[in-house]
């Protein structure tokens, strides 16, 4: 897990040269070119209709491009027979029709077809390969079962086992996790990754789940309208800008907490709704993750959010950065300096509302309370979230509590539930 | 992979079926208005073989001369034709079921039978009486009709170099219903030959001579051999055409061979014996239920089972209402339908 962006350095195995394909007059692929080195795990991503599956099917030579060619180890694949190709390349299609009650073993044995003569019976070597393929795909216990009785995830694994029995050097998969539950999605992709790592099998797969694509692939090829938008490591491809440009969706991108690959979170609504709150600025004083959700909600609701003073590396700071909001930063674990305090005051002054999250107070961030007092004294609207009693988060021996009480005395509004904040903010809207 | 569902090895299953066929043929030869004991039938058959004939000389009693004639001239050609037609329909049905990936497909699915019916009906209605290579006008025109229909349907379904099975199915249904209407039209306007036409359409093996058998034999052998060659490819085609291609199979070429060979089997069967229903649907189906879907076992097993089935049903057709003959097509449907339903009820969970 977690080997960030390791690109297996292998010899170029596949060269896709200027492939163009169209159904009738409608172009599906336009001048697509890229190379795949041996042992790479390449993911093809892109919105519906961008040509992902078509690209995969031109590589597997199911479809014939009208322009361009595919070279397998420098050989033009159009000069190869389907038998020759089947010995090098196996394909796992998106859907598998298993209407006839072959046993799992029989289905996987069909993968040996390209290696057997017309009258040749399966030998011990073929049986060994089938056994191995079943084992790798966690299907050994299913060997005698009719395929018609399998679940979706099991069928997909059996299909992968069949592909493996072909002893291919390239494995193509067309959305292998479509229609599967999350546990089966990861099971399938773990198998694929193991095949890639352990057997140096080159893998090209179409995926529509961007997070899974980012997690599992070495390289990603992002398609847009039948052209390559960009090709690169997940870190290069899965960015807020790329997703917005190709999918037209607003997303947050942040590294996965365990493996570090970029993961997206969808913002189903654009941050600026029709009833614009664009002019309303809200400054949030947070820290230690106490303000993360609030900042997200406010951005989502369409407010202009600023934040301060947040220590670099703090989870609130991460959130502010993901949301892209103006933030006063301080070095980690350091007390606030005059300079950061001044900048915090500046942002506070520009805001119509200032909200204090239920953060713990130590000597380092006590200045935040003073800044808020200044604002309240000026008549600015300050909301104090009092979900946790101040005594319980005062690590200054009573000084914070004292300043906190003074802030309330200066007219700050104390709220307990989050809804109350929004009620207050909404009231602001009606005033204008 | 070699084992059938019951755990028998493939060769064992084939051997058992082959022995049943042999026994069925010998018993069927003895059954009729003149009963002949199986021992004598074996003697008659043996003694008419070249070279080894002498070994079958009267050890257990003399051969009645009239029995010799009844067996070799009357019953044997008919029974052997039943073997050919039964196996042809079963193999053709199994092939179409595989090609269309549909266990409900049968040898008549792409309209070949309707073409044969039109040919045969027309010959009967016009009372054509010429003989060609020992066979009459009816089978000749029936075969011609089947062949022309095959060519028509195939070319209607063709899209460039490819023959998608779906368009084959649709073209077959469309052409079939037009031809069926023409059959009705011809039948409607031929009062004098009406009974003959109706009887022929119901399918019968009555009064077929050796000529029919020997004319049909080469077509049947060649077609079956071609299909047998593609048994493994048929298995792969059940996965779908694209997966089959990814396993290295030349899908379009394979489909073409299988289609023509299966249609040829249907054409021969219909031309020699009219429309015998249900054999081509039920037999492959039952064989698949018993031994699994692997065509390397399914095809020979279906051929032998189809032969056994038709030999017995035709024997029933001969003896049930003496001295009348029942059209065998009626009996196959009467027997096959309920048996089929029984199997479906019994094995609900494995419908195919």
Structural description of this entry:
The complex is a heterodimer of chains A (about 425) and B (about 350). Chain A is an alpha/beta fold and about 425 residues long. Chain A folds into two domains: about 10-265, Rossmann fold; about 280-430, Rossmann fold (3-Layer(aba) Sandwich), CATH 3.40.50.720. Helix content of chain A is about 35%, strand content about 25%. Chain A is built from 15 helices and 18 strands. Chain A has helices at about 50-60, 80-90, 105-110, 125-135, 150-165, 180-200, 210-215, 235, 240-245, 290-300, 315-325, 340-350, 365-375, 400-410, 420-430, and strands at about 10-25, 25-35, 40-45, 65-70, 75, 90, 170-175, 200-205, 220-225, 225-230, 250-255, 260-265, 280-285, 305-310, 325-330, 355, 380-385, 415. In chain A, the strands form four sheets. Chain A has a six-stranded mixed β-sheet with strand order 6-7-8-3-9-10, with helices on both faces. In chain A, strand 9 (about 220-225) and strand 10 (about 225-230) form a beta hairpin. In chain A, helix 12 runs parallel beside helix 13 (about 365-375). Mean pLDDT of chain A is about 90; it is low at about 1-10. Chain B has one domain (about 20-345): ABC transporter involved in vitamin B12 uptake, BtuC (Orthogonal Bundle). In chain B, about 50% of the residues are buried. Helix content of chain B is about 70%, strand content about 0%. Chain B is globular and about 65 Å long. By secondary structure, chain B is mainly α. Chain B has a two-stranded antiparallel ribbon with strand order 1-2. In chain B, helix 4 (about 110-125) packs antiparallel against helix 5. Chain B is built from 14 helices and two strands. Chain B has helices at about 10-30, 40-45, 65-100, 110-125, 135-155, 165-190, 195-200, 210-230, 230-235, 240-245, 250-275, 280-290, 295-320, 330-345, and strands at about 130, 135. Classes of the chains: A alpha/beta (about 425), B mainly alpha (about 350). The interface of A and B includes residues 89 and 97 of A.
